[in-house]
Amino acid sequence: MHALQFSIASLSEGSIAVDAVVSEETVRPVNAASLQLGPVRVQGVLDELGGEVLFRGTVSGVFRNTCDRCLDPMEAPFSVEVTWLFEEGELPEAEGGVIDIDPTDDEMPRIGALRGSELDLAPLAWEEIVLVVPSKYLCVDDCAGLCPGCGANLNREPCACPSDKVKEPKDNQGLAGLADMFPDLKPDKLEE
Predict the structure, then answer these.
(1) What residue ranges do the domains of the chain occupy?
(2) Which of 2, 55, 178, 183 is the most buried (most CB within 10 A)?
(3) 97 falls in which pLDDT band (50, 70, 90)?
């Protein structure tokens, strides 16, 4: 039993305050890839509601990764307010593989299943963490990145390339390469 598992019998005594700091391995499912997390903190209150259990609280921690522009190590903190409702039995199956959830309804709780005599917060904590993974890791919003010529980290040092030799990389032409891919659409061949 880990810090995010609770005996359902202990819930009959009233609300249970939860404040657990666990490793990524505690919340990550067996076959899931690592998200490079630091310690994960789950805080909140568990309440028994006559056959159902309600958890309200937060899941917080940090993603540890490298900046996508300058490749320096960095941390991206996260904190998510959560409401989870645990019901007896199995989770309801989605019709056609789709569960109808209104993403704009912040009050709608995620549903978990009560199985046996224990309640496990780890699976829903993992789900919340996966939903807030950054699409891009940046050490700072205006990270200057690396020089394409000499590789200098432009956040810490100036470019070492001679100013007369600095050229844009050939593949850094934006959408200009599309003209070569579609020669029939070049402006000189447009019909009037």
Answers:
(1) 5-131, 144-185
(2) 55
(3) very low
Q: DSSP for 83-128, please give it.
A: EEEEEESSPPPPBTTB----TT-TTPPEEEEEBTTEEE-HHHHHHH
**Tens digits of per-residue pLDDT, 50-92?**
778 889 999 999 999 999 999 999 999 999 999 988 877 554 4
Reported as type and span, the H/E element at residue 15 is none
Contact criterion met (CB below 8 Å) for 82 and 44:
yes
CA-based Rg of the chain, rounded to a whole angstrom? Answer: 25
What tokens appear for 121 in the block? 């917060």
Alpha-carbon distance of 164 to 95, in angstroms, equals 64
Does residue 79 sit in helix, strand or coil? strand
What is the reported pLDDT for 140?
Answer: 93
CB neighbourhood size of 134 (10 A) = 11
Asked whether 116 and 93 are in contact (CB, 8 A), the reply is no
Alpha-carbon distance 39 to 21, whole Å?
6
* Helices and strands (DSSP H and E) totals, the chain: 3, 7
